[in-house]
Structure prediction request, 298 residues.
Amino acid sequence: MLGESSDFSTILEYGCRTIIRQKANANPFFLLILLLVVEVNAIAQFESGTVVVIGYSHNKIIIAADSRDTEEDGTHHDDSCKITALNDKFFFAASGRISDMTHGIIGWDAVNQAKETFSAVPKELRTAKYIADYWAQLMDNRIDIHIRPEEKATLIPRHIFLSAVFAGIGPTGNTEIATSNVEPAMNGGRMRFAYTLPNDTNMGDEMNYLVIGDGAVLFNEFFYATSKRAKREKAVTLKESKNWPWDETDTRMLIRVIQLAIHYSGNQGHLGGKIDAAQLYKGGTIRWIQRKPNCPDN
Prediction:
């Protein structure tokens, strides 16, 4: 419950207790090649610079993300809602080839399909793993049916096409997290889509972290303070942390580190915007620490 543990040592140790894993390795240059062969009247959205970070332990789940989406013509906007609350106890976030619309027909939309999946699963079966499995099967089928042939011909087998995470409070009342990776694969000499459910999450006493998107390297650098510039920023962060509410410490840390990743990315066209962040304690409900006005809370 809220108040049982502030995990303030995360700030003091500044990442010493954390395991960082990158869950999507979609190459932005590869995605750009795909754009060059797409019809003019086809719309595709690629979050080539997305950074979503999820922290988890048996006591709570925290999540933060940037807001920039890059469109087919290279333009970007900073109002993307990359974190979706499926209800007041479950988060969803995705990175990669999240949606497609061709000739006015929506082929797939990762967020809409996540909402459909969550609504279709009975409450007693709403574990993170079950929902992630159900969602991945739905995405596989929709992508197989709707992906444009000229795009499909350029895909690399087992190169992650779409990655997602489901995290929240399961039917037993415990915190849960599960990831899904959707990938092209050869099956009987034919390119189809398949999915994997990496099983490497450990809900222990200490916070662990997942990074979805292309921000893992910078996140590691500034969370662990492995460079001179990161060490300089660490001193600033520790000073700022003295003014953070004790029960928002871990979430404020995510916000700060993502801000640094955006600032130092050297790729301002694909990573940026305001940062949305929320936290969920075991036995509680989702609480938004930062949220853009255009993004729904639930």
Summary: The chain has eight helices and 16 strands.
